[in-house]
Design goal:
Elements: H1 2-9, E1 12-15, E2 21-31, E3 36-45
The structure holds FE2/S2 (inorganic) cluster.
């Protein structure tokens, strides 16, 4: 049971070579400028600066 609780709260940030940061876990994403606050389990954040949907990756890095 302790392992299950630990897994639920674990957040992993993965650097995808030549691509975005993949973040998985129990994530609260907040964008104050656009008044967005969401609880999500997976995010891909742009690292290349080419995305038209920042801060998210839109595959423009390919
Ligand atoms: S990393 Fe994918 S669009 Fe920037």
């Amino acid at each position: 049971m302790e392992n299950n609780q630990k897994k639920k709260t674990e957040t992993v940030v993965e650097v995808i070579e030549g691509g975005p940061l993949k973040i998985t876990g129990n994530i609260i994403f907040q964008d104050i400028k656009r008044d967005i606050k969401e609880n999500v389990s997976e995010l891909y954040l742009c690292r290349c600066g080419r995305s038209c949907n920042k801060p998210f990756c839109d595959d423009s890095h390919k």
